[in-house]
Design brief:
Radius of gyration: 19 Å
Number of helices: 9
Largest sheet: 3 strands, antiparallel
Order of helices and strands: HEEHHEEEHHHHHH
Shape: globular
Helix content: 40-55%
Strand order of the largest sheet: 3-4-5
Structural class: mainly alpha
CATH topology: hpI Integrase, Chain A
Number of strands: 5
Number of domains: 1
Distance between the termini: 50 Å
CATH architecture: Orthogonal Bundle
Amino acid sequence: MPNKKTLALTEENYKKIIETMKTGFIYKAPEEHEKKFNPNDKVATALVLEANLGLRISDILKLRLNDIVKDGDRYRLDITEQKTGKTRNFTVPGEIYRYLENYTLKHNIKPTARIFDVTERAVQKQLKITADYLGLDGIGTHSFRKFFATQVYTNNGYNIELVRTLLQHSNSAITQRYIGIQQKDVEDALNKHIQLI
């Protein structure tokens, strides 16, 4: 279950985390010796997919390339969410499919094999180390799903119903709490209403 205090990433922090994972780094935790963390394309790519598809990391880690089916002129993903048991059938943008296809070719992963042979715990551990190295607090794997939600919300005319549908929440109030927009909306409304004479 995601921590309620997990924050949505900013675009800047999203890019920093992914770039740092892809290049590797040397890190010295308090009261520890210096450790080298090699580039981790696998974890970085799994998190990129979470940020671009809005799926939970548990569902990302189960993916196989052949789970994405060409359907006419589009690609479609049909999955059953591990957490909720709900079926999700949605379009995968061609650019994301090609990104994933290139990753599987580069790493010699068969279309029927799991793309990410890594545990959720290993992803969380690598992310925590990277976030600590970058000095970022409140970041977990769910931060990437929240990043997806907030980006869709702000880039599509603040359409909360669209985000609700994409995340498969049962109502908009849950989605509003999820992406933390209630307080911002209240503040914006108050600031727009000023009628001083």
